[in-house]
Amino acid sequence: MLFVTLLKIRPGKLKEARSFLQSGENPEGISIKAYLGLFGRYDALLIFEAPDSGRAASFVTELMSAFETETFATISPAEI
Q1: Which end of the chain is more exposed for a tag (fewer CB within 10 A), N or C?
Q2: 10 Å Cβ neighbour count for 7?
Q3: What is the pLDDT of residue 76?
């Protein structure tokens, strides 16, 4: 399953956020497809693949120490 997460760096957590984003490591079961910096309400957009919504939720929970997050599960047009 593909997921899209909007990230906003928490106040005082820039160093921790930068460390995560620059590590280039994929957590177990997660495949990061794209990371894009944003101008506006959010600081970044993360597109990742996870085997299921439970693993995606665990991954996003790990991000929440440094980021405020908003995550969306995606569907293809064929699934509509």
Answers
A1: C
A2: 25
A3: 84
